[in-house]
Amino acid sequence: MANRISTLISAFGVLAGTMLLLLAVREYRAGASVLWVGLGALILTSAVATLVRDVPHSRQNASA
Questions:
Q1: What is the pLDDT of residues 24-45, one digit of tens each?
Q2: Which of 10, 28, 39, 64 has its CA 20 to 30 A from that of 57?
Q3: How many domains does the chain have?
Q4: Closest CA relative to residue 46, chosen from 23, 16, 25, 24
Q5: Angle, alpha carbons 14-30-34 (nearest 5°)
Q6: Are 17 and 47 in contact (CB under 8 A)?
Q7: Rounded Cα–Cα distance for residues 32 and 48 (Å)
Q8: What is the pTM of this model?
Q9: Spatial distance between the Cα atoms of 5 and 32, rounded to a whole number of angstroms
Q10: Which domain holds residue 39?
């Protein structure tokens, strides 16, 4: 059960990272620094990596 909750939290992290990246791109188009886009991409990449790490653990415990 704890692994499923961890996977769910990771999925919300990917959603939040995507929203942050979209906001950063919008702000960049409005004249903000390109560093915001880089930071948004880094956070999204980290969130996706965490989700990829959590999914196999969730599936492994669901079948056991």
A1: 999 999 999 999 999 999 999 9
A2: 39
A3: 1
A4: 16
A5: 60
A6: yes
A7: 25
A8: 0.82
A9: 36
A10: 2-63
